[in-house]
Amino acid sequence: MSENPASNNCCNSRLEYTGAFLLLRLWLGLRTLLAGVEKFESGGSYSFENYYKNMGRMAQGITSASFMPLWMTKFYAMSLGYLLVLLGLAVLLGIKSRVSLFVTGLLYVSLSFGLMAVQEGEGVAWLGMHMVMFAGALLLVKYERLALWADQNN
C-alpha cells in the first residue's frame, strides 16, 4: 500500500498555513493588548488616573501639532486604550477572528492617520508593518483551527 504524496502535501501545507495564522494572531493580539495596557502606566504603576492623564497629554500634543481640534483628539484618545485592550483580547483569544482582525486593522489605520497628521514618519512606517501583518492574517484566517469563538465561514 503506497501513500499518495499529493494528499500528504495538501495536509502539510494546510498545517503550515494554520501555524502561520496562529503565530500572526498571537503576535497581533499580544501587541494590541499590551499597547492598550501601556496607556494605563506611569512611573511603573498602572491606574485609571494615569490613563486619563496620559491620554489627555496625548490629545493635547496631537492637537497642538496638527489640524485636528482638541474635542476630536480627546474623544479618540480617551477611548483608545480601552479599544486596544478589548480588541487585543479578541484577536488573542480568537473571538470572531475575521471581524476582530478587520476592526483592529481599522483602528491601526486610524492611529496611522494621527501620526501622519503630526508628520511622524517613523511611527507611520512602523504601523505600516502592522498593517501588512493584519492583511496577511486576514488572508490566512480561513485556516484558523484554535479559537475561542470561530467564524462561521472557516
Description:
With 154 residues, the protein is mainly α. It has a domain at 12-50 and 79-143. Helix content is 75%, strand content 3%. It contains five helices and two strands; from the N terminus they run αββαααα. It has helices at 5-37, 48-65, 70-93, 97-117, 121-140; strands at 41-42, 45-46. The chain has a two-stranded antiparallel ribbon with strand order 1-2. Strand 1 and strand 2 form a beta hairpin. It is elongated and about 60 Å long. It starts with a helix and ends in a 14-residue tail after the last helix. The model has no long low-confidence stretch (mean pLDDT 93).
Give a short overview:
The protein is mainly α and 154 residues long. 75% of the residues lie in helices and 3% in strands.
**Average pLDDT metric:** 93
The total of helices stands at 5
Strand content: under 5%
Backbone CA Rg: 19 Å
Order of helices and strands: HEEHHHH
- Percent helix range: over 70%
Low-confidence runs = none
Per the principal axes of the C-alpha atoms, what is the gross shape?
A: elongated
Strand numbers in spatial order across the main sheet:
1-2
- End-to-end gap: 33 Å
Question: Total number of β-strand segments?
Answer: 2
User: Sheet bearing the most strands, described?
Assistant: 2 strands, antiparallel
Structural class of the helix and strand makeup? mainly alpha
